[in-house]
Backbone:
């Protein structure tokens, strides 16, 4: 949904967008597709979304980008469900098609991704990637282990705010800690708190 909002507002609610889907057999693939699609339908109905599966495979993602970029002259944006799998290939395809321009330049195709890997953050800082939704891998590990230890010790969890700026909510019959996933743009791409800036 955050990726959709960034994309939709940047395009003024108009244009054609490629949605590069992950594997729909995975929870992440389904959620990242459903959230984007529902948000587009509700908030930006005049944006045409071209959906293409990539199955989390780099070669497939590059092939999809190649096909759509060369066959869609009015392409205004690309949504990548994983920058670790898709971003490098997309940038190479755009460059080969002579359609790679920096953020803010005429003819720029808006690019938004999920994960905010170190490579993605570098591309944001250099002006090639508009935005990335940061998945806080460090916090997933930290609190995942904490909850595991607490569960083994017999502790139960209830819905509500946590002591680390998130909320626990019930999701499909399970309690889930909704850790913040900040949107990264040029304004905050160098933030040392982003997990992608902590990787050595």
Residues:
């Amino acid at each position: 949904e955050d990726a959709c909002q960034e994309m939709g507002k940047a395009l003024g609610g108009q244009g054609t967008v490629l949605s590069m889907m992950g594997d729909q057999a995975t929870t992440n693939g389904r959620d990242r597709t459903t959230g984007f699609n529902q948000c587009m339908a509700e908030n930006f109905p005049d944006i045409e979304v071209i959906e293409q599966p990539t199955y989390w495979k780099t070669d497939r993602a590059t092939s999809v980008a190649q096909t759509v970029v060369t066959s869609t002259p009015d392409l205004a944006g690309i949504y990548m469900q994983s920058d670790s799998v898709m971003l490098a290939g997309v940038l190479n395809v755009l460059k080969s098609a002579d359609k790679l321009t920096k953020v803010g330049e005429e003819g720029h195709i808006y690019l938004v991704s999920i994960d905010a890997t170190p490579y993605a953050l570098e591309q944001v800082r250099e002006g090639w990637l508009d935005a990335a939704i940061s998945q806080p891998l460090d916090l997933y590990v930290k609190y995942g282990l904490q909850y595991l230890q607490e569960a083994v010790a017999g502790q139960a969890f209830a819905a509500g705010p946590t002591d680390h700026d998130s909320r626990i909510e019930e999701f499909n019959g399970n309690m889930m800690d909704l850790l913040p996933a900040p949107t990264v743009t040029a304004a905050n791409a160098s933030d040392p708190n982003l997990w992608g800036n902590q990787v050595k």
Remarks:
- The mean pLDDT is 96.
